[in-house]
Amino acid sequence: MKNYDEQIKQYGWKGAEVIFDLSKEYVKAGERLIDLGIGTGLSSKLFHESGLAVWGCDNSEIMLDACRAKGFASGLKQHDIEKFPYPYDSGFFNHAVSIGVLHLLEDISATIAEVARLIKPDGIFAFSIMDREDSENSELILKLNHKIYRHNFKQINDNLKRYDFGIVKSQELNMPINKKGDGIPAMAYVAKKNAG
Ligand SMILES: C[S@@+](CC[C@H](N)C(=O)[O-])C[C@H]1O[C@@H](n2cnc3c(N)ncnc32)[C@H](O)[C@@H]1O
């Protein structure tokens, strides 16, 4: 999906760069990373370039084919992240990322629980989310048939704490919705799994 990579550039979405910058002090070469909704691989390419071994899943074979063609992933699987369990062994990964994906899920708690199963203690889960004011509804229709879900800090933090994660970094992001730079508020979070 060459068009996808070009569109991301034109829209100026910086999610992957911001999340890598926030995460880099917690990861090291040789560790394993799972990218949930890896798409064409933009979200984990920087981790790969830092020496991590990247696995990914996505529910689109077209996106996975584009990622496969880049040749950097250690393993790619078609999988819907709303279906549990994910097809990996417990504790197989050191870290997880999910960028530009979780706003498609109404309920993120089962995903956070599953990430807690997949990664080792002291690993990080770094992700982007669409943000909202406490007074705003979660559901937002961007255009016909394109519904997204926004999650405020309390929802994120409560779910992370429930599965023994603590937020170590966060940063505001702008999620562009057109080439003019109009966007909606988003957040990048890095959460560390407690050593237990
Ligand atoms: C906006 S793209 C982001 C891709 C990549 N993470 C990046 O940062 O470039 C969203 C990706 O999530 C995938 N996706 C959406 N819903 C999914 C689901 N339920 N399970 C797995 N993948 C999903 C899409 O196929 C797409 O590749």
SSE class: alpha/beta
| Order of neighbouring strands in the sheet with most strands | 3-2-1-4-5-9-8
Annotated CATH homologous superfamily: Vaccinia Virus protein VP39
Give me the strand/helix succession: HHEHEHEEHEEEHEE
**What fraction strand?**
25-35%
Which cofactors or ions or other ligands sit in this model?
A: S-adenosylmethionine
Short account of what is shown:
The protein is α/β, with parallel strands linked by helices and 196 residues long. It has six helices and nine strands; from the N terminus they run H-H-E-H-E-H-E-E-H-E-E-E-H-E-E.
Walk me through what this model shows.
This protein is α/β, with parallel strands linked by helices and 196 residues long. The protein has one domain: Vaccinia Virus protein VP39 (Rossmann fold), CATH 3.40.50.150. 28% of the residues lie in helices and 30% in strands. It has 6 helices and 9 strands; from the N terminus they run H-H-E-H-E-H-E-E-H-E-E-E-H-E-E. A 7-stranded mixed beta sheet has the order 3-2-1-4-5-9-8, sandwiched between helices. The chain has a two-stranded antiparallel sheet with strand order 6-7. Strand 6 and strand 7 form a beta hairpin. The longest helix is centred in the N-terminal third of the chain and has 10 residues, at 2-11. The protein is globular, with a radius of gyration of 16 Å. The chain starts with a helix and ends with a strand. It binds S-adenosylmethionine. The site of S-adenosylmethionine has 18 residues, from helix 2. S-adenosylmethionine (SAM) binds at residues 15-16, 37-39, 42-43, 58-60, 63, 80-82, 99-101, 104.
